Structures are given as C-alpha cells and as structure tokens.
C-alpha cells in the first residue's frame, strides 16, 4: 500500500510551492506599495509645512519631492489662508500592479494666521 502513495508528495509539492511563491510575491508587493504610500503622505505634509512658512513654490516642490518616491508629481494650491499640497506617484510593479498613490495635506499659512479681519472683526 505504501508504494501507491509515493507520487502524492511530488504532486502536492508541485501545486503548493508555486502557490506559496505567488502569495509571497503578493505580500511583498503590498508592503512595498504601503511603504510608498507613506512616502507620498510624508511628501505632501512636508510640502504643506514649507508652503505654510511662506517658502516659494520651487522650494515647496523641492521639499515635497525630497520626501516623496521617485517620479512623483507635486501640485500646490492656495485658497485664502490655506495652502494645499497634493503629491501623486505610481507604485512599483508591472502593468496593472502599478497603482496610483495620492495624498493631500492642508496647512494654515503663517502669514495669514492670527491676522486681522477674521472671526467677526
């Protein structure tokens, strides 16, 4: 009876090993995408802080890009006392595994904070 079971181990290994390799690859891609998303968020926050301090647009972009992943894009927008910085990038991965990552940070401009003409005056 033992001789009849000899081929099952090979067949099970042939099915399980590729499935484990695929699962490991998917987990690794997910961790890398999450790490890149954290970089995108950090870039947006750093850019918003720089813009709130009143730094020029080139300096804001430079600060945001220094924290963001490679090939990221930075958009800045000012609306009254608020500055908005949006950082977008693509995650690593081939074809459909490369997903768009985006983060936006908003900060109160220091030159407008605590000024006159606000809150009923």
From TrEMBL:
Residue ranges of domain TadE-like in the record: 7-49
InterPro entries named in the record: Rv3655c/TadE (IPR049790), TadE-like_dom (IPR012495)
TM annotation in the entry: 15-35
Pfam families given in the database record: TadE
Iron in keyword set: no
Keywords on record: Membrane, Transmembrane, Transmembrane helix
Name of the protein in question: TadE-like domain-containing protein
Upper lineage: Bacteria, Bacillati, Actinomycetota, Actinomycetes, Kitasatosporales
